[in-house]
Amino acid sequence: MHGLGNCYIYLDGITRDLTVSSFPELARRVSDPYKGIGSDGLILILPSDSADVQMRIFNKDGSEAMNCGNGLRCVAKYVYDHHLVRSKQFLIETRSGNKQATVHTKDGIVETVTVDMGEPILERERIPVAGTPKGQSVIEEPLTIADEVYRFTAVSMGNPHALFFVDHIQEAPIHQLGKLLADTAPLFPSGANIGFVQPLSDHELNYRVWERGSGITQACGTGACASAVAAILEERARKDIPITIHLDGGDLTIEWQSTTNHVLMTGEAKTICDGVYFYEH
Ligand SMILES: N[C@@H](CCC[C@H](N)C(=O)O)C(=O)O
Fold it and tell me: A biological process (GO) annotation for this entry (predicted)?
């Protein structure tokens, strides 16, 4: 399945027993486009004790993430289309808490999904970003790399994002900074998804991303939420109005609500095919 081209292999652990010795290893194998299937990672759909279903997400390199926006919409589509939930609104457990999904259908099949992504995390040490002052947000912080000064705003949507605002999205240094900062930089002790944002108006922006654990992807749902939050923190956009985020794979609509402090994400979810994968050793 994919959400705006952010593609994962989904394993149904609700109707089947998943007896796999190592999910990180399986994630690395299925993601390989030559010896596997080819994807940005692996997502497990599992029973839950605290919600209607549970999602676990493994990046292409086998690392497990706490959250995945495009994954949440696809899991919502899968469980509704396969009659594993009864109503159009239900809870999905993630490692960063339970998220409420609402599916929008055409002829009984899910086309788009809205997910309440909860509150953004803004305190430096909770994102986490190294350094001080602790307990405060990280907004337009300078970062010098090879004599060049960049500025970033950091936001966690359960997973860490660093957002760099640029004038032209196609000229963003995504290869240079993504590779350098996403997985091993001391500044981001848990790694970070490195995003680039070009504001177009107070309710529209372009966004591209180098994802921690997966590299450049066509889209990142949590990253789209984080880019909208960062734009609002930098006073380039406003709360309580839907913000259209243009990603390489298509558009998402994000709204940060002031009454609840929650971020809502709406966008497509698509099924490509299903089948049997031979896990050979
Ligand atoms: N593509 C996802 C995010 C996947 C996890 C991310 N790479 C991380 O390690 O935090 C999304 O749509 O949010």
Answer: lysine biosynthetic process via diaminopimelate
